[in-house]
Batch of 2 targets.
Target 1
Amino acid sequence: MGFAETFKALSDPVRREILMLLKEKPLSAGEIGSHFEMTGATISYHLNILKKADLVTEEREKNFIFYDLNVSVVEEVMLWLSDLRGGDGDEKRA
Amino acid sequence: MGFAETFKALSDPVRREILMLLKEKPLSAGEIGSHFEMTGATISYHLNILKKADLVTEEREKNFIFYDLNVSVVEEVMLWLSDLRGGDGDEKRA
DNA sequence: TATCTAATTAGATATTTTTCTAAATAATAT
DNA sequence: ATATTATTTAGAAAAATATCTAATTAGATA
């Protein structure tokens, strides 16, 4: 699945903010866009990058496309960082 | 300290590999460079980005500059991800 | 079917990033 | 003081990224 894509996706502030919005609940592309001073096209571009990185899932409902955070990939990134940091990821009980 | 800089620094594969090398032990700029097919100048550029993101520390010793991983910033990134993921970061015991 | 709304795709541009070569610093050793 | 070694800085070129406007697609509804 590739950490390169995932970290790349996380490296942009707009995309991190989108993820934080999705933390609360799934939102349509339009709802997401309304939080930013950007065109829908640009939001779509960012959503696509998040989707490719598997950080979000999309689901069609009527005329809308709802995006949702994919927690499992977030956890995979945490594991990578945990490995970098060394130890067993549960240092406080070592 | 700024997550933007930190995530940006983590978004490059060369820089992530450098961090993984430093996980083992501090290394000089030259030793780091010898792991890559790049000029020392380019390695220096990457080290500078990691330094600005506070992901590595540097220490002079004789004619060498040794770089070391700064674990605490890695942990801060993990906390950000933990927040994104929701819950208390210790889900398995919830 | 025609039209409306939500969202994406295409193409262009500006900015940022990565990399190089060459020159400059810093510290050590002769 | 000079030369040597390790590393960084400066400046330039190539590649990737983020953004826009305009056009297109997908689905829903009249």
Note: The mean pLDDT of chain B is 92.
Target 2
Amino acid sequence: MYDQLKLDNQLCFRLYTAARLVMQAYYPYFEPLGITYPQYLVLLVLWEKDGRLVNDIAHLLHLETNTVTPLLQRMEKQGLVTRKRGKEDTRQRIVSLTPQGKALEERAKEIPNCLLQKLSDKMDDINCLMASMPALDQVIEGLARQTK
Amino acid sequence: MYDQLKLDNQLCFRLYTAARLVMQAYYPYFEPLGITYPQYLVLLVLWEKDGRLVNDIAHLLHLETNTVTPLLQRMEKQGLVTRKRGKEDTRQRIVSLTPQGKALEERAKEIPNCLLQKLSDKMDDINCLMASMPALDQVIEGLARQTK
DNA sequence: TACTTTTGTATCGTGAACGATATAAATAAA
DNA sequence: TTTATTTATATCGTTCACGATACAAAAGTA
């Protein structure tokens, strides 16, 4: 058994597991809003700046457009966004929030705090991870560069 | 726009993105072996100890059995594992490595180092994250507790 | 202008991930 | 011993995630 192949030694396994479990922790709050975690991410970027192109959203989230397109189609069907064709460039899709989509911001704003409260006994560890966010960003940037 | 709803402030988005990008970084190495990242995780736990039950694997990976069962079925079809019924308890499935599954360990052992080399210019950040692994484990434990 | 390439999005197929549900075997209770 | 409950897997339906591919519009080239 090679040490580098032990689950206990693998950073990636932690990231993979932590990401999934945090998403699961979000779901009790998403359910009343009728959204999923990736849909929440799309809403986050649209709440920051409305009327974006599919490609912009995909880049911001480090996703492929063939992931984002069906995601947006589902969100359109649910009445959260509209997908209008671009005026000058008719290939483009301009994704905009509907009133319902906008209204969710108010209802979502407390969710991050709720999650933190759930983990109030792990506050030291959370702070440690918060402090590592720049390092995470660097690694993400390094990995994103590879695939270019 | 609420600060806590900015993508830039969200730890979870980093975890989600980093986990996906690390998986993508693995794929060039997985492709010659014909496996996926979740299949690699199953192999990791079987290389550590062969002949496990579906439930044990699921618990170790923090996955549901309804995720693991189809995963193992695909791995069986590819000839990486066998799934034999338990002798005493016939509901159980004893998952064991085939010779091919065992043989992959030798070929996989250098993969983690290869990944590290790819990120050699981000070594400081990697070390920072390695140092945060106990914090990540604590948060994972905290979140896993919630869903029980 | 006609042709080629690039760009923006969409479709398709496959493998996760998970909630809900099913099923059969093992265990506990009546 | 019958009945009820728990346990170990499995099946189904939906949503991601992504490689491969398609396609039409836009931009560049001959």
Note: Chain B touches chain A through 63 residues (CB under 8 Å).
